[in-house]
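Sample log: DNA replication and repair protein RecF.
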Amino acid sequence: MRVTRLALTNFRSYKNLELEFSAGPTTFIGNNGSGKTNIAESLIYLAYLSSHRVSNNQPLISLGADQAIIRAEIESQGRTLQVDLEINANKANRARLNSNPVKSQREILGALQIIYFSPEDLDLVRGEPTHRRDFLDKLLITQSPRLAGVISDYERVVKQRNTLLKTRAPENALVPWTEQLITYGAQLSAERIKLVDDLNPYVTANYKNLNEVKPASISYKSSTENLSADVTHNVEILTARQIEVARQEQERGVSLIGPHRDDLHLQLGDFPAKGYASHGESWSMAISLRIGSYNLLKSEGAEPVLILDDIFAELDTARRQQLTSVTQMAEQTFITAAVESDLPAELLSTKFYVAPGEAKR
């Protein structure tokens, strides 16, 4: 899979930008604040329908504009697909595939598969559980775009159910939302558990390849015990558990069971990575999670595009080499850097120099 063309209209700092790409590594070099990460962000948004930098759409739209447009031409398995996405701040986004409107923007998920690295990846190790849940859910969507619907429906149900609990709604008003919470929660838990089981060997191997001494592993930490990759089993467990916590939920005004309360546990040797890992070990774990994700997708027949966003300046030589080795496996890689000398020579074959509002070769 590779992106052959990218056009941005009123996206962040770019009023109009049109770029053509070939296979292999493409590097964007520019000072901090020049807009190089905006280009990477547009591709990430196209892949996940969300930004890795902001939680709403308004900052993505150029000042004074009503909407931003991302248009990409993608080649995959001998086919060419044009994806157009119109980003709006106060109404639903609109999308087109090969110039044909689609009913929901979610229909473009899977057209572009991406694994990205950024300085924010340290949050996967040191940050709150929400970062790790988001990491798992984005990887699930990359694997199977249909799961975006399950994740979205689950989040909607939790929000509505919590609103009812806070307002002391009667039990009969809660029943349909509780049933949906369990139905979607059982599915999402099963998918996450299977994903973590599949990902764990790759994380362990990649961490070892970084010459780290302690063994690394990951596991799924559920707020409800005994869940598995079996959906039916999870429905039974969650149903029984919900009955147990029903009174507490009414008292506290919040849903106390379900995957919105779960976490991805990262282990280094005898200790959890969070709170115990050094700065270097935290980077090694974050890199192992991202490269492991790439390895897993590759093993399933996918060819995701790699994005390395301002990451080389953060890493020592060994970790830079590990990332560089992954780019050799990828059909296409996009790299951003403030300082050209931070990058290995083999990543500098195609370069764009970025200044505010433009990127030129």
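Observation: The radius of gyration is 21 Å.
Observation: The mean pLDDT is 93.
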